[in-house]
Amino acid sequence: MNENLFASFIAPTILGLPAAVLIILFPPLLIPTSKYLINNRLITTQQWLIKLTSKQMMTMHNTKGRTWSLMLVSLIIFIATTNLLGLLPHSFTPTTQLSMNLAMAIPLWAGTVIMGFRSKIKNALAHFLPQGTPTPLIPMLVIIETISLLIQPMALAVRLTANITAGHLLMHLIGSATLAMSTINLPSTFIIFTILILLTILEIAVALIQAYVFTLLVSLYLHDNT
Amino acid sequence: MLSRVVLSAAATAAPSLKNAAFLGPGVLQATRTFHTGQPHLVPVPPLPEYGGKVRYGLIPEEFFQFLYPKTGPYVLGTGLILYALSKEIYVISAETFTALSVLGVMVYGIKKYGPFVADFADKLNEQKLAQLEEAKQASIQHIQNAIDTEKSQQALVQKRHYLFDVQRNNIAMALEVTYRERLYRVYKEVKNRLDYHISVQNMMRRKEQEHMINWVEKHVVQSISTQQEKETIAKCIADLKLLAKKAQAQPVM
Asked: Is the entire prediction scored with pTM above 0.95?
């Protein structure tokens, strides 16, 4: 039994050296590149998936927004693979660390905002006031819009962290519940085990969905600002 | 890249060397080494089409073959797992059930959708190959069509002499026709001229005849004197009387 519930979320170190760097660098090893036209099945399916997601994501942007396509596609692939790898037993998920998610969210969000302010300053400032507000409400609404803009990177980072961490915690808890119940009452163990299986399926979905949501929101901010 | 930095530093230090900055990229290219190894003189052996056989998706077949003479690999595996469990090298914890559920879901997914994904990937590759094959076939077809057209053209050329014969005949006929037309026209013209001469001659003769007759008549009339005329007329009257008597003598039938 781990010493506490959050032991699996400690950033792993090997003799005091951060192994988290190696863990973060591991997922690209699972996505091979190839210079051939006809590849093995792994590369073929991966290339097809990447082509599908990139087409889906980047059609709504104009030429300036499409310069971000490499960034966004690599972002969604990184988050998806990291989340999915974190479902394996005894593995460490970097996206559970708020520091890493903040490091991803703040530069991307700030990049879109600064790009918007540099190129189309009137449009960027116009986002602070929705259309058709009655005149007395304007000062309050500007403040509210500013706060909602400044909260976007926090929301991005915290959303991803909270979802993945909560999922991992739930799996851990229900696993320990089955462990405890196995000595007390065997049939209920199977019930709880079924719940665990359903939760696993949910976690897989959540892993993919969170990646998608993160990238989609960044792409939305990009669309507003190009 | 450092060579570029060196060059730009040198340019700032000595302005006369500023033109040397244009050599920067060339120097960079010269310092990179390409194609230093020997080129392959024989065809490089092709990559194997399928990877090595693997059991359970993780352990290569060679591992099993290596172990078979000495010990059964499954027995080895079971023994290792039981040893780790009993000596608590591997502790059953909450993670165990999580691992069981995750691995169970993964195995179920792979077993159920594995062939589908494999077929899909194969289909994608098939499509790529089919596209290229289509291009090749289209090119071959195009060339084949060109060859067939060329052959038919050659065959037509062989039969071209019929056309020429017909044309030659036509032209010969036309020439003949024009020749005969002209001949006829010549004949007509000549006849025309000759007819003219004949009619001129006829007319002259007639005129001469008439003139002669008139002359003769005139002279005869002139030559008849008044005495002779009287005598002639009296003789005619006497003759007529005689004839009348003779005529009267005839009975009326």
From this structure: no
Residue A147 belongs to a domain: yes
List pLDDT tens digits, range A93-141.
Answer: 888 889 889 998 899 888 888 888 887 777 777 777 777 778 888 888 8
For residue A199, give every residue at least 6 positions away whose Cβ sits within 8 Å of its Cβ, in sequence order, or none: A167, A170, A171, A174, B101
Write down the mean pLDDT value for chain B: 83
Mutation to test the B interface, candidates A84, A171, A183, A195, most B Cβ within 10 Å: A171
Which residues does chain A have within 8 Å of residue B97's beta carbon, measured at their own beta carbons? 174-175, 178-179, 193, 196
Q: What range does the domain containing A137 cover?
A: 7-225
- How many Cβ pairs within 8 Å bridge chains A and B? 77
Alpha helical stretches, state H, chain A: 20-25, 41-58, 63-66, 69-85, 98-119, 121-126, 138-184, 186-225
Domain total in chain A: 1
Assign B251 a pLDDT band (cuts: 50, 70, 90).
Answer: low
Contact A197 B96 (CB under 8 A): no
